[in-house]
Write a structure and sequence with these properties.
Helix content is 52%, strand content 0%. By secondary structure, it is mostly helical.
């Protein structure tokens, strides 16, 4: 174990303590791309019943986005949109959006954060729910983008016969996006 802070309560911390913690966090964050990759790999062992694993679904969604000419941020969003399934099955979209939020534009995080509601259009009426829940966002500036994300990529990506790219094809993109300086105005500023 390396150096540790001098306090047992945060209110007692010194400037040196918080500088140490800041550096420790920066060092830890350098390995975020590797942790993202490992988390995505774990999706191969989750949620049964679909014709493909959650990993295959995620890779297929990202492959479709890439082949449609989506920009890097939307492709990475397609890849990690279900990354929260393991820990938050009833709130997975918010987890995925928060993972992305420091690194991509606001439009992308909004799409990921709301894709679960938009996906309800395809199935929830079979269980007595309102498939048009997404209509509460009808006038939102990114409604059409989220609708398209779900229609073209997410809901269509359960095909075991689809020519899906492997995770290794997306690893350079994972490193490029998740190695950005967090909250950098060049990336996180909303589109005008």
């Amino acid at each position: 174990m390396g150096r540790i802070v001098s306090f047992t309560q945060m209110k007692d911390g010194t400037r040196e303590d918080y500088q140490l913690l800041d550096q420790s966090e920066r060092d830890h964050a350098k390995f975020l791309p590797q942790r993202i990759i490992e988390t995505i790999k774990r999706l191969d062992e989750s949620l049964e019943g679909y014709p493909v694993s959650r990993l295959e679904h995620s890779l297929q969604t990202a492959t479709r986005a890439l082949r449609d000419g989506a920009d890097d941020e939307l492709v990475i969003a397609a890849l990690v949109h279900d990354i929260g399934d393991e820990l938050a099955p009833y709130n997975h979209a918010a987890i995925a959006a928060d993972v992305l939020r420091p690194y991509v534009r606001e439009e992308v995080t909004w799409i990921v954060e709301n894709h679960g509601i938009f996906q309800c259009y395809y199935y929830v009426h079979h269980m007595g729910g309102d498939r048009n829940m997404r209509d509460r966002f009808r006038n939102h500036k990114w409604y059409a983008a989220c609708e398209s994300f779900c229609e073209k990529w997410d809901q269509a990506s359960f095909d075991p016969g689809y020519d899906t790219l492997p995770l290794t094809a997306f690893e350079p993109l994972i490193f490029r996006i998740f190695s950005r300086t967090p909250h950098d105005d060049r990336y996180v500023t909303p589109l005008q």
